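fyi for ur records
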Amino acid sequence: MNNTDELVAALETRLDFIGLDKPALDRLGQAQGYVDKHLPLAMELFYRKLATVPEVSRFFSGESQMKRAEGSQVNHWKKIAAGQFDAQYVEAAQRIGLRHAKIGLEPRWYIGGYGMIVETLLRGVVHDFASDHMVREQKGLFARGTDPAKTLADADVLGGMLAAIVKAVLVDIDHAVTVYFDKMTSDAAASAQANADKIMHAVTATGDVLQKLSAGDLRDRIDVDLDPAMQKLKDDTNNVAERLTDIVRQLRGTSGSLKIATGEILAGANDLAERTSKQATVVAETSSAMEQLASTVSDNAKRAESANVQARAVAQTAEDTGSVMTSANAAMERISNSSGKISNIIGMIDDIAFQTNLLALNASVEAARAGEAGKGFAVVAIEVRRLAQSAAEASAEVKALIEQSGTEVAGGSKLVSEAAHKLGAMLTGIRENSELIEGIARATQEQSATIGQVFAAVRQIDEMTQHNAALVEETNAAIEQTENQARELDGIVDVFLVGGGAEPARAPGREPQPRAAAPARVRLSHGNAAISQDWAEF
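which gave:
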């Protein structure tokens, strides 16, 4: 059983379902004359309307093609009016449905056109049938005096013809629309299958690349031709592979550089740790030395303060001695003055002794002159003279002693003056030394305070150095851990296989390729060129 036989069988099923049996086809045959009469007018009105509708008129290349289509439609409708629902009708309806599907004529225009045609035909059939009935009855279909039974019978006949016409038209519409939708469904299924095949092809190619990517092989790319709609998937997949390759290469370079850098940092950190340890030892020794120096300077400050106190005491003693020496010098001057006065007195005594001696001599002379009478007076004169001489001698001795004492007093006064002068110079020196010792004591105290601050700073530096040493140790541990992680990163990166040959690392931001434009939906209508053939079937 071929496809045409199947379509004929399906048509018979439709006819049976809609009620176009032998009696209905006979009633349709009764209306054939009326239908054939009004078909040209119905088609003329229909195609005249089509010419004013751009959505439909665009399918015609010109008026001549529209005339040919009009003639073909008249023949087709005559077969419908004759009830010729045979294999030829099925093939013609099949071609019409396929043609509509091919050119993209939507069923709404087809059904709307049938509505216009049926309207003209039904009006014509009713008009002609009523006209024939009035001729037969000569009084009109609904005139008074008409036999109601006859009128109802004629109305039933007319109703049967109209029903048969409508059913035949609906069957033709159903057949053409069914073919149209079958074709569209078939084309859609074929298109969907083709799209599914394209998608599966793209998915398979993409899956192969992604499977290798997941296994660490970054060398594979999608190099097969894909549908334009899948080009974006191909480009994106290849871009992902390229980007992963670049990232892995960058990671390899970075991990290598990181290992070198961490090695150098670790070596430097170890050296820093060693130098920090030595520095900590030196700082500790310096701290101990500074502590001893601070103690020594503090002791020196105390000694300098004690020396300053003693120097002040010596200066005070020297000042007191200077005062004593000044008093002694004044006393010596007073003694010298007293010696001068004694010398004057001695001089007076010498003068008295000289005058007494002269008087004694004169007395002796007078006693000698007096003779025996003056003998006693002579003895007194002699004794006076001896006393005067003794007084003169004693005065001379006293004078000599006083002169010697004056000389000694003058020498002593000179010595006391010189001693006072030297003592004043010594006192000046003692005062200067006292000031110097006081300055030394004050400077020593300041040095002691400064050294105390330096010692505190050195101790703080010592603590910071110890802390830095601990931080260096922690840094070494962190660097060693980083180096181990870099080594692990090398192991992770080495899992990936990339293409041979060094390639420059790309910038992190990769410009996305322009999205491939989605292919425009292909309409089944391509203008007049698509309907230049077999449009007469419309």
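Residues 501-538 have pLDDT under 50 and may be disordered. thats all i got for now
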